[in-house]
Design a protein that fits this description.
The protein is an all-alpha fold and 397 residues long. The protein is 69% helix and 0% strand. It has helices spanning 2-25, 29-53, 61-90, 99-109, 117-126, 133-161, 165-183, 194-218, 229-238, 259-277, 282-286, 302-319, 333-342, 348-359, 365-379, 381-392.
């Protein structure tokens, strides 16, 4: 568990840095953007490898449809529970009948929906669980609930900015990527060594950023933004795997070792540090740029905020327990509980949702609580992984 501890420390150091760095750099947008791009590159590196190791039996479409349904449910429960808490408990009296309050808090509450695929895979692999049923199932569910959350953002954005043709383009691109992964699954023969994967990662981020900047020049209010998580995963999916003479995948040829393993570890370490460093500064959360008005401008009652953080964190993780009642024919109750706990880590996608909320001028105490809750879940990721390992100890792999 030494690697898990190292990753946890790097997360915490990054989060501390996120509160210190703006003061040292004059809150430089260039520095923030550089950190964001580096985070996306390291995430792409992880997701290309996840896609490369991802294999499905196309004869079992119903099974994967069920997995997607379970993943979407495990994403929707935390989102709805947290959003309802924000409106019913934290918003001013009368907000229950206020459409704008529900609209804003549904977007903020969406931070609780996605499992952090990059953080989860890095931590489970570091804990030596890469060959288990739990890891393979978590890999499917985490990817599906991230994809589902990205799709969920589209109607939420429509509620705020109205129907925009750019959102239809985003949906079309995402559907096209998913179809490409299905049709060309492990059929494209291109190199998979670490220098090439780094080059692919940089290329994907450059394409995503370029598309965003070009579309922003035509439509500043609603540019086209494709998260790199899905394109990187799809690229990994279509890269051909080495196969034995009988046609089966030769996993021994692409298990990381030597320099490949070292680069993978360094990339995961850097990614986790950058995720922590990407957390919004608390001052920016309270009064986001472009906000129509300052929310809750008085002094922060940190005791009350702390109670809200605990409540939101408990609700968001409770909502992730849905997989525990599924897969009864595939795994024991302890393994299913471990799978659900393994879905607790939040990270890059959740943080990205909060950044989107801030960009629309949504701020105040609910966003503050969301940021701290996300940070708390990140800090506890190592604890969650140790709980998972303890639960499945002695269980069949």
């Amino acid at each position: 568990m030494g690697k898990v501890l190292l990753y946890s420390v790097l997360l915490i150091l990054g989060m501390i840095g996120s509160q210190i760095l703006p003061g040292l750099t004059g809150n430089s947008e260039a520095v923030k953007h550089t950190i964001q791009l580096m985070t996306f590159v390291t995430l792409s590196f992880i997701m290309i490898h996840v896609g490369y190791e991802f294999d499905i039996d196309k004869r079992k479409k119903a099974k994967y449809a069920a997995d997607f349904g379970i993943a979407m449910t495990a994403a929707s429960f935390p989102w709805l529970l947290v959003s309802a808490y924000f409106v019913l408990v934290m918003c001013p009296a009368g907000s229950v009948s206020n459409w704008h309050a529900w609209r804003d808090e549904l977007l903020v509450g969406c931070f609780a929906a996605p499992t952090s695929a990059g953080v989860l895979f890095s931590m489970l692999a570091a804990a030596g669980l890469g060959a288990t049923w739990l890891f393979k199932k978590a890999r499917v569910l985490a990817i599906f609930d991230d994809i589902g959350t990205i799709l969920l953002l589209i109607p939420l954005k429509i509620m705020i900015v109205g129907m925009q043709w750019q959102l239809a383009v985003v949906v079309a691109i995402m559907v096209g990527l998913i179809v490409a992964a299905w049709v060309w699954l492990h059929k494209v023969r291109i190199p998979m060594s670490w220098p090439f994967v780094i080059a692919y990662s940089i290329g994907l981020v450059a394409f995503s950023e370029g598309l965003y900047l070009v579309s922003k020049s035509f439509s500043p209010d609603s540019p086209i933004h494709i998260e790199v998580l899905l394109p990187a995963f799809v690229l990994g999916c279509i890269i051909a795997q080495p196969r034995r003479s009988d046609g089966s995948v030769d996993h021994t040829h692409h298990e990381p070792h030597g320099t490949e393993a070292l680069v993978g570890t360094l990339n995961s370490a850097l990614f986790l540090f950058l995720v922590g460093l990407s957390m919004p500064h608390l001052n920016d959360v309270r009064t986001p740029p472009g906000a129509a008005e300052a929310h809750d401008a008085g002094a922060i009652n940190w005791g009350v905020v702390g109670l809200h953080v605990l409540a939101v964190t408990l609700l968001s993780n409770l909502g992730k327990m849905f997989p525990a009642i599924c897969y009864r024919t595939e795994a024991s109750l302890k393994t299913r509980l471990a799978l659900s706990i393994g879905m607790w880590p939040r990270g890059e996608v959740g943080a990205g949702i909060l950044v989107v909320a801030l960009s629309y001028g949504i701020g105040g105490e609910t966003v503050l609580v969301a940021v701290i809750s996300l940070a708390l879940n990140l800090v506890l990721t190592g604890v969650f992984i140790m709980m998972v390992k303890g639960l499945i100890r002695g269980e069949p792999a």
